[in-house]
Amino acid sequence: MITFIGFLVLVLGILIVIISRINIQVDTLAWLKRFRAGQGVVLLFVGAVLMLLNSLFFFADRGFNYLLVYPTGKMSAVMEQGIKWRGFAKIDKWQKFIDVKVVGAGIEVDEKEVSGLMQPIPLRFIDQVTASGYVSTRFELPRDEESFISLAVKFRTMSNLVNNTIVPTVKEQLVNTAYMFAAQDYISGEAQSFRQVFEEQLKGGAYAVEKIEKRDTVFATIQDDSRSIKEIKTSYDVKRILENGVPKRIDHELSENSIIVSQVIVDNVELEATFKQRLEAQRDESAKRQLEQQKVETAKDAQQRIIAEGERDKAAERVAQEKEQVKALIAIETKLKQEETNRKLAAIALETEKLNAQKKKVQADAEAYEIAKKVSAGITPEVKLQLELDRDIRVAAEISKIKFPETMIIGGNEKGGTPLESLIGAAMAKQLQTSKTTDR
């Protein structure tokens, strides 16, 4: 557009200069006579500048690098956005970031957003399991001018770089990475390591590796702890070759041309159907084995529980028997102590009886002595008792013979006595006196 405007301005300046020097009688060009020749020259200069402006300057878009080839053959690079000096150089436009993605069947992707499209990459793990790899990667062109110019000269076009270098390198390194892992390990938690190794090989070159075969003997254990060989399992391991403690690398096109790996994503690794079936069978067998092992462990636990309960019951019975023995011993000891106490009490009682007997004997001896004294005096206690009894009988008989007057005068005295009582007392005193006199 600017070139076209410059061309029009240039033509206008030429017409003004020509009309100002030549007398042309044309009504349609009469308005050009208003301009002077100097103004025409200025328009000529402005038009020429406008026409050459696109050849002298250009606008660098963001996200692109530019290779400039000057008429002299010199080359330079523009790697920043904005208005840049061109100087009649030929410009090759290169996309700064390159996206390469594996797209499966039936998935639609905007080809304008993705520079390189790939079909699912066939993989084979070290345990001979096949799979299909799906990855998304992003690459950045070299950031220094020298490397970029070298790459642009070497590959000439963006399509050539993507289809003949980047895409094959991604496939090769993904295949190499799969060869370093076993499918069983990949599904068992090595997916992150798989992605990391793939990224490292893209960035710094492929690892030099060696394949090592390993044979593992699997023993079948039974309950009595004896072992027998169940199977011999063969596996393979891939070791990185080290040089001075550093893994040896093999350069590829990306590392040689300073292409920067900006992003690596392993979208999916789809394992073959037969391996999935085998995994399901292994899962079922593993579940059964675990169930049987759990049953064995449960039986062992039950056995241990029964043994423990038996020991507990024996211990409880032993404790109960010991308690009974202790009770019996305590009872015997108590009885012995009681017998000892009874013996001591009996001894004390015997001593007491002896003392009582001695006391009675002393009393009897004293009474006998007293009686003997009395006997020697002529009156024994029995005789004295009989005499007193007879005396009382005679007194009673005499009292019964007393005749009292039928008429009495009852009076009182100061001491409160009665005449009857006085009479009776006097009579009894008289009779007693008479009786004593008679006895004598």
Give structural notes.
With 440 residues, this protein is of the alpha+beta class. The chain has nine helices and 16 strands. Strands 6, 7, 8, 9 and 16 form a five-stranded mixed β-sheet that branches. Strands 3-2-5 form a three-stranded antiparallel β-sheet, with helices on one face. Helix 1 (2-21) runs antiparallel to helix 2. The longest helix has 105 residues, at 273-377. The chain is rod-shaped, with a radius of gyration of 73 Å. The protein starts with a helix and ends with a helix.
Strand content: 15-25%
Cα distance, first to last residue? Answer: 199 Å
Helical content (DSSP H or I, runs of 4+): 55-70%
> Which structural class matches the secondary elements?
alpha+beta
- Total DSSP E strands: 16
The backbone outline, from C-alpha atoms, is: rod-shaped
Estimated radius of gyration: 73 Å
Quaternary arrangement of the chains shown? single chain
> What count of helical segments does DSSP give?
9
What's the mean pLDDT score? 78
What ranges have pLDDT less than 50 throughout 5 or more consecutive residues?
A: none
Q: Sheet with the most strands?
A: 5 strands, mixed
**Order of SSEs:** HHEEEEEEEEEHHHEEEEEEHEHHH
Q: What would you say about this model in short?
A:
By secondary structure, this protein is an alpha+beta fold.
Topology:
Layout: H1 2-21, H2 37-56, E1 57-60, E2 64-69, E3 75-78, E4 82-85, E5 90-95, E6 97-102, E7 116-118, E8 121-124, E9 130-140, H3 145-155, H4 158-179, H5 183-204, E10 206-207, E11 209-221, E12 227-240, E13 242-243, E14 246-247, E15 249-250, H6 253-256, E16 260-271, H7 273-377, H8 381-401, H9 419-439
Parallel strand pairs: 6-7
Antiparallel strand pairs: 1-4, 2-3, 2-5, 6-9, 8-9, 9-16, 10-15, 11-12, 13-14
Helix pairs in contact: 1-2, 4-5, 8-9
